[in-house]
Amino acid sequence: MHSFWYRLNTVITISALLLALLCSLASLSDTLNLPSVDAQVEVLKVNRFRKQLTGNDEVTLTLNVSADLQSTFTWNTKQIQTYGGIFRHPNGIPTIAYRHTLQAVNDRSELILAAVIEGLREIDKWKNKMGNLAFKFRRKVSHEAAIYIVFVFLAAEYETSKNSLNQISLWDHIIQDKDQAKIQKQVPTKYPLVDQGHNLRGKLIKFVLHWYIMPKTGRTIKDKSIVSEFRLPEVYT
Amino acid sequence: MGFIGDSIQSVKSIQIRQLLTQIVSLGMIVTSALIIWKALMCVTGSESPVVVVLSGSMEPGFKRGDILFLHMSKDPIRAGEIVVFNIDGREIPIVHRVIKVHERNDTGEVDVLTKGDNNFGDDRLLYAQGQLWLQRHHIMGRAVGFLPYVGWVTIIMTEKPIIKVSFLQIFFL
Question: Would you kindly state one Gene Ontology biological process term found in this protein's UniProt entry (chain B) (predicted)?
Answer without folding.
Answer: signal peptide processing
